[in-house]
Amino acid sequence: xxxxxxxxxxxxxxxxxxxxxxxxxxxxxxxxxxxxxxxxxxxxxxxxxxxxxxxxxxxxxxxxxxxxxxxxxxxxxxxxxxxxxxxxxxxxxxxxxxxxxxxxxxxxxxxxxxxxxxxxxxxxxxxxxxxxxxxxxxxxxxxxxxxxxxxxxxxxxxxxxxxxxxxxxxxxxxxxxxxxxxxxxxxxxxxxxxxxxxxxxxxxxxxxxxxxxxxxxxxxxxxxxxxxxxxxxxxxxxxxxxxxxxxxxxxxxxxxxxxxxxxxxxxxxxxxxxxxxxxxxxxxxxxxxxxxxxxxxxxxxxxxxxxxxxxxxxxxxxxxxxxxxxxxxxxxxxxxxxxxxxxxxxxxxxxxxxxxxxxxxxxxxxxxxxxxxxxxxxxxxxxxxxxxxxxxxxxxxxxxxxxxxxxxxxxxxxxxxxxxxxxxxxxxxxxxxxxxxxxxxxxxxxxxxxxxxxxxxxxxxxxxxxxxxxxxxxxxxxxxxxxxxxxxxxxxxxxxxxxxxxxxxxxxxxxxxxxxxxxxxxxxx
Amino acid sequence: xxxxxxxxxxxxxxxxxxxxxxxxxxxxxxxxxxxxxxxxxxxxxxxxxxxxxxxxxxxxxxxxxxxxxxxxxxxxxxxxxxxxxxxxxxxxxxxxxxxxxxxxxxxxxxxxxxxxxxxxxxxxxxxxxxxxxxxxxxxxxxxxxxxxxxxxxxxxxxxxxxxxxxxxxxxxxxxxxxxxxxxxxxxxxxxxxxxxxxxxxxxxxxxxxxxxxxxxxxxxxxxxxxxxxxxxxxxxxxxxxxxxxxxxxxxxxxxxxxxxxxxxxxxxxxxxxxxxxxxxxxxxxxxxxxxxxxxxxxxxxxxxxxxxxxxxxxxxxxxxxxxxxxxxxxxxxxxxxxxxxxxxxxxxxxxxxxxxxxxxxxxxxxxxxxxxxxxxxxxxxxxxxxxxxxxxxxxxxxxxxxxxxxxxxxxxxxxxxxxxxxxxxxxxxxxxxxxxxxxxxxxxxxxxxxxxxxxxxxxxxxxxxxxxxxxxxxxxxxxxxxxxxxxxxxxxx
Lengths: 525, 493
Fold this sequence. Notes:
The complex is a heterodimer. Chain A is of the alpha/beta class. Chain A has helices spanning about 5, 15-20, 25-45, 55-70, 110-120, 160-170, 185-190, 225-235, 255, 280-295, 310-325, 340-355, 360-365, 370-380, 385-395, 405-425, 450-455, 460-465, 495-505, 515-520; strands spanning about 50, 80-85, 120-125, 175-180, 195, 215-220, 265-270, 300, 430-435, 470-475, 480-490. Chain A has two domains: about 1-305 and about 425-520, Alpha-Beta Complex (Amidase signature (AS) enzymes), CATH 3.90.1300; about 310-400, no CATH class. Chain A has an eleven-stranded mixed β-sheet with strand order 1-3-2-4-6-5-10-11-9-7-8, sandwiched between helices. The longest helix of chain A has 24 residues, at about 405-425. Chain A starts with a helix and ends with a helix. Chain B is α+β, with helices and mostly antiparallel strands. Chain B has helices spanning about 60-70, 170-190, 230-250, 300-305, 315-325, 330-335, 340-355, 355-375, 385-395, 400-415, 420-425, 435-445, 450-455, 460-470, 480-490, and strands at about 10-20, 75, 80, 80-85, 95-100, 105-115, 120-130, 135-140, 145-150, 160-165, 200-210, 215-220, 225-230, 260-265, 270-275, 290, 295. In chain B, the strands form four sheets. In chain B, strands 1, 2, 6, 7, 10, 11, 12, 13, 14 and 15 form a ten-stranded mixed β-sheet that branches. A three-stranded antiparallel β-sheet of chain B has the order 5-4-16, with no helix packed on it. A two-stranded antiparallel ribbon of chain B has the order 3-17. In chain B, strand 6 and strand 7 form a beta hairpin. In chain B, helix 6 packs parallel to helix 8, helix 7 (about 340-355) runs parallel beside helix 9 and helix 9 packs antiparallel against helix 10 (about 400-415). The longest helix of chain B is centred in the middle third of the chain and has 22 residues, at about 230-250.
């Protein structure tokens, strides 16, 4: 066995595809190695909620057989891919890391899952996330914590924490996540991997369990920009099942990386590097600006005056939509349902007690069995963060508050979009931090929702504006934790963002750095 | 009930839901056919599974626009979808996709016949919007065990909600409006408006204006009446409710605004309205724009294309029939109520026989009776308008009397043949004029007493001669016999 065989995911997906095509390695080798790496490290990292083991191996062998036969294979043929567990996989569990869907098995594939299958990728398993993608640390998962491979005491970020951690721990070369307010970019930054949130509508949302429909977008995570381009090419495209999907041809992103972008104008927002930002992040920004300048980019200051309202705006809109999107989990049709016998007994007992007390008013107000079924099902099925957001959203949409919150938020959202439009008149893209600091400790912010929300301040704007943003590793903190930066561009500028990101990775090696956990254990024997 | 009979004025507005005649549901490809086994016409989209997305059925939009145009509404070039949030087991997503502040149609009217039949009245339409239907809950409470089942076949079926202004002034007028609306929607082929199958549902808002004697009036609290399962039930429920409100006002003096709006359900068995639980009405639906769908735009070209499919509508047809064929409002009403195919049949018949009134009589009496007896539609009717016109021309020419024509008609229906064939089969022979005249001369000669009576001014006596003529030769035309005899008798003096 070659060294590539024994420790394949030191290589990028692009390199592995070449090796597969040349016959240096088989898909079975790759899947075996992925499963071995998962077995070694995932008990520490906890990136996966389900692993397809034998099924993945069977599929890999089938790809190998077809390859030997000389069949035409898809663009990702034989490559293991991890899928976030809020993407529906036909006949296989899709839990959203929630008790509510612990036993849910969708009878359909998400469009992106169908596309991965059509591209002959091997789905290796489903990755952990914050419950219903609500969170920035993957701590709100109902099932397990995911730990940052760079420091197991720290969070991997979220909500696509599992998706980023499994790439960082070199368990898979490619991973699919979703980004509603930073959920791809933030964990990518904190785990030292590359991740792209595409333009809203670029990738079909069909089969992505909705958190906030107007903000959700599916995207790739990988070690390199090139691999993200490779994966995006498969994920992107119009889908008649998603009315919000964009009907425009998908450019050959990876091929276009070879083209040297013309003189690029990169903007940055100086205010973003002021108070509350870790010095490590500021230094990383300064160094990256120098790198881009050395590559011939023109760097200039831009202003996004409404960015300071982005977090408030985001949480009102996201929670409002979530309160409605999650109404379907009521215990009636599918998913978790409270123990009905116990519920009815409890209700009967309450009625008896109220009758004894002669409390007619309370008796009149007593839940019907149906209402109690809803209440208990949702109280037991959802975790605290999900409930908090449902309540916030319900409040924001309520009669009397709608104008002050939801409608106001929609107006600010428009202003934020206009800020970007104006900025993109003078620059091609905007470089900025992804997070105010490196990964925080597990438990550090979980009881302080506001602090957790404020950690999103740099990522939510792209979702509100619907624009693409590419997060990539750009440095390490003093403690040796990854720090990522992001490039945000106008709608459908993925191609340019990827080109510029690729340019950066050709002259830096931050994306090649591996977590000490893996480095110290060395290649698998 | 006539408003002038009562010491108050009734004010009624209706909210009508009609199911659209689309092949598939509003946001997925499932069939909308009625009567399939429960939950067999469903898919992940219409049962609201995680991650699925709605995609608008453009056909439903077209039918909504068509209806709006027929109701003289303004059609929004830009409208959008909203979510109406509430929990109910037959609403699988926990929200209904509807239209809130930008409905597809606004501000129209429907012209309805008034009680005197000659004039029409315009009932204002506030808005018409599209939304998806919920499923159906079936409660089985046999043997003391509450057992609820849910059928989601209907979930996602396109519904049109039509909201009228409070322009209706009596329960009868409300019923007339519904009848006219149903007729219009049938003509448009937008909905079959079958109340039994739930493809038309009506809620009514009603209150009273009670004169206070000084030229002013006091309004009673508005009540929403639900659960009315036929147009007759609507009429009865509103009649009951008006009287109930009047009595309640006399008793309590409650005016509009004194108490919260009440919802009452019509109890068909007891023939009364009953209050529905107040908990069920105090909902905050938290409407907000549906983020899974893009706004709906309608281009001028699309609008014109849809307008071209409208065809002639009932009110216009009534006017045309009255003007062209000189028939009464009542006759035109009966004909138009049978639907477009029947109108076409009538028009061909009237043109073919050259007498609109005669055609109207035959269409309404003979044709319609046969259709009803045999449960046929006009399309199944075996006698073509041309064939029937041929028969009526013979009647007009005096070749057949009405009684014989009816026999011929029956034969034509039975044998599916032409008038001439039927006449031949029945052995009806046209009696030659000379022969007829000879027969009459003979009768006059042999019946001097009758002749004397006629001469004395008793015209009726001539009937005896007609009767004898028919006995001698059943093929004679009695009217012609009468004419000839009179002529001969008058010639004698």
